[in-house]
Amino acid sequence: MGKLYAEYDTEAKPVQMNIDIDTSNLGPDKLEELVLHIAEMSERDTNFLSTKLNKLVWAADFACFCETGSTISGARYQREKFGPVPKAMPIILERLKEEERMEFRKVTVGTRKGLRPVALDAADLSRFSQRQLMIVDKVIAENFGKTGKQLSDESHDKLAWKVLENGDAIPFAAWFVTSRQPTPAERRSGLELEALAKTFHGKA
Amino acid sequence: MEKLRTVVTEPSVDAELEAIYDSIERADEALRGFQAILAKAPQCGAKISEHVWFMGFEGKGIWKTLAVYYTFNDKYVWILRIVEIKRGV
After folding, report:
1. Which residue of B has its CA nearest to A195?
2. How far is B50 from chain A (nearest CA, A)?
């Protein structure tokens, strides 16, 4: 049985559930455990700072979305300066701090200063399937040692990244949309739609 | 801030997408991806003719590769057709 939180209300407090419903699929709780798991697994990664945490959560959710059609955390994301970030992330991080399950240490990596999320408690992995855990662990391993900026640069080539503005919601499927040129066959198919397209402009 | 257009999909387009994915949920998810971009910047696609534009969708994993044909004015984007592109073809 999970705790239920309001996703966007910064004043939200845990609600004690006394009715028998399954909350295991709700976003915020799974996001909390996912964040904690990533922090635990990244303990020895010297480049693991707050930005990289956001990047890894997104990368794990996106990888799972590609493989299974749904994400690990159930979180909704929005565009932020350095990449997609779960909307509920500020609440999740605050709660982890309040519950003394995570702390943020000021560190200097090379010439960069930042905050390193440090797990103080083990994540509750019972909420995740084996497949989900394999995906997130693979993402962590593949990106071990990379900086948050290196991960950000990969995001910034996407059309969705260029078109959307900070604060805009990012549906996962928007990440697949490209501005590639049509093939000659696709162009021919499009030309067949000209008469239909014209009718919409006539109605407008 | 860029003006948001309303994205309109005809029932025939919804049916095309549902047939491609064999799932209403996945069809909706794919459509949300297009809508997010088209509502903001339909001009990012490729212009094919006076009124018809094209945009690609490079699906990974279970997500199929698609092509969308659409037209737009300053208020609306109308999705005309969505087709699956077979990988490796």
Report:
1. B51
2. 7
Q: How far apart are the first and last CA of chain A?
A: 52
**Which residues have a Cβ under 8 Å from the Cβ of A32 and sit 6 or more positions away?**
A92, A95, A96
Determine, yes or no, domain membership for A14.
Answer: no
Q: Which of A92, A85, A81 is nearest to A62 (CA)?
A: A85
Which residue of chain B is at minimal alpha-carbon distance from A66? B61
pLDDT value of residue B87: 64
pTM of the model: 0.85
Residue A58 pLDDT greater than 60, yes or no: yes
Asked if residues A83 and A155 have their Cβ atoms less than 8 Å apart, the reply is yes
Amino acid B23: pLDDT: 87
Mean pLDDT of chain A: 86
| B54 touches B67 (CB < 8 A) | yes
For A198, the domain range is 27-203
Q: Which of B34, B35, B52 is the best residue to mutate to test the A interface, defined by the most A CB atoms within 10 Å of its own CB? A: B52
Decide if A59 is inside a domain. Answer: yes
Domains defined along chain B, listed by start = 6-84 (3.30.2310.20)
Per the structure, the count of domains in chain A is 1
The alpha carbon of residue A150 and the mean position of all alpha carbons in its chain are separated, in whole angstroms, by 16
pLDDT, position A18: 44
- Span B32-64, pLDDT tens digits: 999 999 999 999 999 999 999 999 999 999 999
Let me know if residue A189 belongs to a domain: yes
Q: What is the mean pLDDT of residues A76-90?
A: 93
ipTM for the whole predicted complex goes beyond 0.85: yes
DSSP string across A30-59 = HHHHHHHHHHHHTTT-TT--HHHHHHHHHH
